[in-house]
């Protein structure tokens, strides 16, 4: 059962496209979003549950807010979802914008997909090469990871990988990569920017700040909420009185635009890593669904 993947930056229309395609091919959708797994975090993560209608979906609302979720568990959950979809006789569609999660499914997990930590790199770059080697020797080495220490840059990358693996259990090697056809959706920047700003205002009107207040009231700490992404980070700052309303909206809006650019950078990295992404021509949802059907082979 070949997997169909739909990826793209935030506010690009991925969910609507996946639903339209699922209706045509008797599909079921698996979310590839690292935040939509959390219950009671709907507006801040953009679940848009009403968009699914009667289309089955998986890996949304699977853990409580406040818990930790990582790529290892995601891979296992995807395989369980695929078993359920296969038993139902449906076509699986993986849809989302978390590039690391998608890449771990369609290419398998390699240390190359460990994300860059720009903040940590800034600290490491101030160290001498001797201190970098000493730091690396102090870290437990992940299985089958042979660090390249031939240059300063590679030493820093090795430390980055080893430190990341301390907090993110690795996927089981017994899980192979899945054969997939990958489609990308990326509206023109002007349209994307317009959608991001309009959607942010809509979510605020729908009660995003009330959602964050409820999470805080239910015991999710401010520090933990910041971990869950931009909407929660800036909402917490606003609710704590650290930002006024105008600054809150302006900063959050700007950061979401930057986040969309970072998503596109990661998708380009996936292509450099050997994954072919068929970028869909910008058009209506029905036009893009038709293009997927013509090119899914």
TrEMBL record:
It catalyses: adenosine(37) in tRNA + dimethylallyl diphosphate = N(6)-dimethylallyladenosine(37) in tRNA + diphosphate. Transmembrane segments: none annotated. One of its GO terms (molecular function) is tRNA dimethylallyltransferase activity. Substrate binds at residues 10-15. It is an enzyme of class 2 (transferase). ATP binds at residues 8-15. Keywords: ATP-binding, Magnesium, Nucleotide-binding, Transferase, tRNA processing. Residues 33-36 are annotated as: Interaction with substrate tRNA. Pfam families: IPPT. It comes from the Bacteria. The record marks 98, 121 as: Interaction with substrate tRNA. Its EC number is 2.5.1.75. The keyword Nucleotide-binding applies. One of its GO terms (biological process) is tRNA modification. Its cofactor is Mg(2+). Monomer. HAMAP family: IPP_trans. Catalyzes the transfer of a dimethylallyl group onto the adenine at position 37 in tRNAs that read codons beginning with uridine, leading to the formation of N6-(dimethylallyl)adenosine (i(6)A). Belongs to the IPP transferase family. This is tRNA dimethylallyltransferase. It comes from Parapedobacter koreensis.
């Amino acid at each position: 059962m070949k997997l169909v993947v739909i990826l793209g930056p935030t506010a690009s229309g991925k969910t609507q496209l996946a639903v339209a395609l699922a209706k045509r091919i008797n599909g079921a959708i698996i979310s590839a979003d690292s935040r939509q797994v959390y219950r009671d975090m709907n507006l801040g993560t953009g679940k848009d549950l009403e968009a699914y209608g009667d289309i089955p979906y998986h890996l949304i609302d699977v853990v409580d807010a406040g818990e930790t979720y990582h790529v290892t568990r995601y891979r296992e959950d995807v395989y369980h979802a695929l078993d359920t979809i296969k038993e139902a006789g449906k076509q699986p569609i993986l849809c989302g914008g978390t590039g690391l999660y998608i890449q771990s499914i369609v290419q398998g997990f390699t240390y190359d997909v460990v994300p860059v930590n720009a903040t940590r790199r800034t600290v490491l770059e101030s160290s001498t090469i001797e201190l970098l080697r000493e730091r690396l020797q102090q870290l437990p080495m992940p299985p089958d990871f042979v660090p390249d220490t031939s240059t300063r840059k590679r030493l820093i990358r090795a430390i980055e990988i080893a430190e990341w693996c301390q907090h993110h259990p690795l996927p089981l090697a017994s899980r192979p990569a899945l054969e997939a056809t990958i489609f990308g959706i990326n509206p023109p920047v002007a349209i994307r920017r317009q959608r991001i700003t309009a959607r942010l205002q809509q979510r605020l009107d729908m009660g995003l700040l009330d959602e964050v207040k409820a999470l805080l009231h239910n015991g999710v700490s401010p520090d933990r909420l910041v971990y869950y992404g931009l909407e929660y980070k800036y909402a917490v700052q606003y609710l704590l009185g650290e930002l006024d309303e105008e600054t809150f909206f302006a900063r959050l809006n700007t950061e979401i635009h930057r986040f969309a650019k970072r998503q596109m950078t990661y998708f380009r990295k996936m292509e450099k890593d050997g994954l072919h992404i068929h970028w869909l021509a910008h058009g209506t949802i029905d036009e893009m669904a038709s293009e997927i059907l013509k090119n899914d082979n």
